[in-house]
């Protein structure tokens, strides 16, 4: 049996040690390099302010112009080409644009229009049309962009050599990359996930390749730990006798000690990395959100963290029927009494009542009732009233806790300042069989995140073990960096010594002798 373990460990190591080195190096790079993604603050920086008084078409009229025969999933108001426009999202289809001043539908955004939009967003820097991305390319892998495709890729002549992606459906900028990000991403997330475009265009092949590689890595580390511990000598080997507790010499001794010191943490990284890919297939996996799999975000949905449709319907109180919005936008906007102009207006429904949510920026907004009855303008829903609405979200379950969180916690957080999350949030907990938790946004009435019991366990098993995003570390960012760098350096040394031993094995016969036999 031991002989078989040696053989498994030896030949798996020959095949996988180089991959381990890539994983350790790229994992450290990912502390400081992210896969390009348009976070809310950056997205809003590309939105233009507009005057709500220019809106002449009601939401119901816009939905009729769009040809909808059922309520849309979402309705937004923004500015396109200097004009206000409704963006309506039907079920099972892409966004539809309807101009809010004339009611005309937005046709497909042409390459020329996309170039003008990109140039304006870049403060007049020259823009060059690169091409149309029909499905995906290296920087638009996330499925969240499917509602905006095809995308126009525009190169900007600026010092950063920026490239912008403009939706041909809405004319919005949905992705931005710089030359520095594109280069460093190859040494960080792309290398770590094994996600070059040529593989990601064949999702089943990519997924099975990474699953089998990470699964084999778990076997490699497990056999190494067992063999390393079994070869560790407890008796008669001390500094006084001048003998080592390791029976090996040279590179093998370094490899033995490296395995004893760093083998356990390497095993937890490999197991959690394997679980990232959801090998069982019965829960949502990171394939849907691969670009968000980074230490700066709360993982890549290993558990089913999306809201249940029936729970979301209970909070909203019904479908987003456009005819409910009877209050004119002009009067709603003037009721706020601010000199700022909105960049976006979200039409939403909470507790059965319609509301306009006016956004001046990603973290500055106002809620205004849209049904004609009088109510005060506010920046967020009243906590007590919002909690009462949330209590009915999970049918047959009792609300056991409701807390307005002013600070991040272990399940809702952002490491560093790359993508801060808006605070406060309302956390509600239920006593249903899944012990469901919901994080709700009191500024919009939206569901941010759902955790069931399985999801909370996997948050620690996967995120906690793989990125070490424990509160006592990520709240003290230098400590978090140092912990990952030091442990990765140990794993790198372990992998490098294994690579040297494996290379020597392939180059010629190697006689493994202990120190005593050598003497």
Structure write-up:
By secondary structure, this protein is of the alpha+beta class. It has helices at residues 2-29, 40-45, 59-66, 111-121, 179-187, 189-193, 197-200, 203-230, 251-276, 309-316, 329-334, 383-390, 453-467, 471-474, 477-507, 515-518; strands spanning 74-80, 83-89, 96-99, 127-133, 151-156, 163-167, 173-177, 344-350, 353-361, 364-369, 399-405, 425-430, 437-441, 446-451. It has a six-stranded antiparallel beta sheet with strand order 3-2-1-8-9-10. Strands 4-5-6-7 form a four-stranded antiparallel beta sheet. Strand 9 and strand 10 form a beta hairpin. Helix 1 (2-29) packs across helix 8, helix 1 (2-29) crosses helix 15 and helix 8 (203-230) packs across helix 9 (251-276). The chain is globular. The model is unreliable at 284-303 and 510-519 (pLDDT under 50).
Any descriptors?
16 helices, alpha+beta, 6-stranded antiparallel beta sheet, single chain, 4-stranded antiparallel beta sheet, disordered C terminus, 519 residues
Chart the SSEs and their pairings.
Elements (H helix, E strand, L loop, with lengths): L1 H28 L10 H6 L13 H8 L7 E7 L2 E7 L6 E4 L11 H11 L5 E7 L17 E6 L6 E5 L5 E5 L1 H9 L1 H5 L3 H4 L2 H28 L20 H26 L32 H8 L12 H6 L9 E7 L2 E9 L2 E6 L13 H8 L8 E7 L19 E6 L6 E5 L4 E6 L1 H15 L3 H4 L2 H31 L7 H4 L1
Antiparallel strand pairs: 1-2, 1-8, 2-3, 4-5, 5-6, 6-7, 8-9, 9-10, 11-12, 12-13, 13-14
């Amino acid at each position: 049996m031991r002989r078989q373990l040696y053989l498994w460990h030896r030949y798996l190591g020959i095949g996988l040690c180089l991959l381990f080195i890539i994983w350790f190096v790229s994992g450290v790079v990912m502390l400081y390099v992210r896969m390009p993604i348009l976070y809310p603050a950056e997205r809003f920086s590309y939105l233009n302010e507009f005057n709500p008084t220019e809106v002449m078409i009601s939401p119901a009229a816009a939905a009729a112009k769009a040809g909808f025969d059922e309520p849309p999933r979402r309705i937004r108001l923004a500015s396109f080409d200097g004009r206000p426009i409704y963006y309506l999202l039907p079920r099972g289809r892409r966004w539809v644009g309807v101009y809010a001043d004339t009611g005309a539908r937005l046709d497909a955004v042409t390459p020329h229009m996309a170039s003008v939009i990109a140039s304006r967003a870049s403060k007049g820097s020259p823009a060059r049309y690169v091409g149309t991305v029909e499905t995906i390319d290296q920087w638009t892998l996330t499925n969240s962009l499917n509602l905006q495709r095809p995308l126009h890729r525009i190169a900007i002549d600026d010092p950063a050599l920026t490239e912008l992606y403009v939706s041909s459906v809405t004319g919005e900028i949905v992705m931005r990359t710089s030359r520095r990000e594109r280069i460093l991403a190859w040494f960080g997330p792309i290398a770590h996930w094994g996600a070059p475009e040529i593989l990601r265009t064949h999702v089943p092949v990519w997924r099975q390749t990474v699953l089998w590689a990470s699964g084999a890595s778990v076997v490699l580390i497990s056999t190494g730990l067992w063999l390393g511990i079994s070869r560790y000598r407890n008796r008669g080997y001390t500094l006084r006798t001048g003998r080592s507790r390791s029976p090996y010499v040279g590179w093998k001794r370094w490899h033995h000690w490296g395995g004893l010191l760093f083998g356990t943490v390497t095993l937890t990284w490999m197991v959690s990395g394997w679980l990232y890919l959801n090998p069982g297939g019965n829960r949502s996996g990171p394939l849907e959100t691969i670009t968000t799999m980074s230490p700066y975000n709360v993982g890549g949905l290993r558990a089913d963290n999306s809201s249940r449709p029936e729970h979301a319907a209970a909070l909203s109180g019904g479908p987003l029927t456009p005819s409910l919005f009877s209050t004119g936008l002009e009067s709603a906007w003037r009721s706020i009494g601010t000199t700022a102009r909105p960049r976006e207006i979200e039409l939403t429904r909470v507790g059965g009542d319609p509301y306009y949510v006016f956004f001046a920026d990603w973290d500055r907004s106002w809620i205004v009732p849209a049904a004609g009855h009088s109510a005060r303008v506010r920046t967020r829903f009243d906590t007590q009233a919002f909690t009462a609405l949330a209590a009915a979200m999970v049918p047959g379950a009792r609300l056991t806790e409701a807390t307005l969180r002013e600070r991040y916690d272990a399940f809702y957080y952002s490491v560093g300042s790359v993508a801060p999350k808006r605070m406060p949030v309302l956390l509600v907990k239920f006593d249903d069989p899944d012990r469901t938790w919901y994080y709700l946004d009191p500024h919009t009435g939206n569901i941010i995140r759902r955790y069931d019991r399985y999801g909370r366990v996997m948050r620690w098993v996967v995120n906690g073990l793989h990125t070490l995003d424990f509160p006592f570390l990520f709240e003290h960012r230098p400590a978090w960096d140092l912990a990952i760098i030091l442990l990765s350096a140990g794993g790198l040394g372990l992998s490098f010594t294994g690579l040297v031993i494996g290379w020597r094995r392939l180059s010629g016969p190697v006689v493994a002798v202990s120190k005593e036999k050598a003497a």
